[in-house]
Amino acid sequence: MTERLTEVEARKASVQDLGAVTDVMRSLAAMRLQQALGTLAGTRAYAEVIAGALAQAAMLLEDAPTQWPVNGHGHSALVLFAPEHGFVGAFAERLVEMALTAPPGCALWVVGQRGAALLEERGRSPAWCTAMATNTDAVTATARRIADALYRAAADGRLGRVELLYGRTNAGAPPELVRRPLLPLGLPRDGARTVPPLINMPPRELIARLVDEYVFALLADAAMESFAAENAARLTTMMTARHNIEATLDELTATARHLRQEQVTNELIELVSGAEAMG
After folding, report:
1. Could you tell me the residue ranges of all domains in the chain?
2. Residue 105 near residue 8, CB atoms below 8 Å
3. Buried b (16+ CB within 10 A) or exposed e, 134-167
4. Could you report the per-residue pLDDT of 82-112, keeping only the tens digit for each?
5. Taking residues 227-240, what's their average pLDDT?
């Protein structure tokens, strides 16, 4: 009886330690989620500003292209934004399963080591891989790495069509999956404006730079959405884990109380029996 009570109390202490770790992870996920949601408005506004500038710049050329790359030829690719780490429930698996629906000829570009590992397990190695940002300050650098790699591949004619696949959360709710085209990039037009903007560089060079910046802005927005979704999934997972830990602790506490009562009862019975034998 004593040995069993010791085991239950040791198990309870272990679960309490696990609960403390879970609480820390839940707090970090909640903090990072709020940071990402607060930053998303800025990334979206930035993309809209660049789109407006690009539309105005297109007025400067009679033969301005309607998309970039102009020919749209080359191989297709899917850029998968996946979690960098685990403890996100089935979120990473859902992303990978959707990515695997891409045809065999479509190259999988993966952002996030967790997604790359899951693809390897399923027998489809990424054509390109980089780490996913683990805080909001690192999202810009992550988007820039992706943009630079895409620019090189598109300029070499190796890529013509690119899609993005990432998670999106609405105010911290469990994330949904989003799949949207990136390249060929349809260049926005501003048909309502009649006065061309003042510029200090050749129009084609200006448009080329704005296209680069617009692609980067769209990638930064997708990366921030993905970062928010990852932490929303992790927060949900940690909240579920906390609920299960509390239920387990309640069960272990009840078991320990029952064992202590049995131990006290047995000791009393032994004392009474001993007294009767002596009497």
Report:
1. 26-235
2. no
3. bebeebbebbeebbeebeebbeeeebbbbbbbbb
4. 999 989 999 999 999 999 999 888 999 999 9
5. 94
* CATH number corresponding to 26-235: 3.40.1380.10
pLDDT, one tens digit per residue, over 188-215 is 666 555 566 777 888 888 888 888 899 9
Residue 53: count of CB within 10 angstroms of its CB: 19
Of residues 251, 217, 274, the one with CA closest to residue 53: 217
Amino acid at 21: V
Phi, psi of 242 (to 5 degrees): -65, -40
Task: Assess contact for 79 and 164: CB atoms under 8 A.
Answer: yes
User: Long-range contacts made by residues 65-70, C-beta under 8 angstroms, separation at least 24?
Assistant: 65/187, 65/207, 66/186, 66/187, 67/184, 67/185, 67/186, 67/187, 68/183, 68/184, 68/185, 68/187, 68/211, 69/154, 69/160, 69/183, 69/184
Distance, in Å, from the CA atom of 131 to the CA atom of 114, rounded to the nearest integer, reads 9
pTM for this predicted structure: 0.85
Name the average pLDDT for the chain.
87
Answer whether 178's CB lies under 8 Å from 91's CB: no
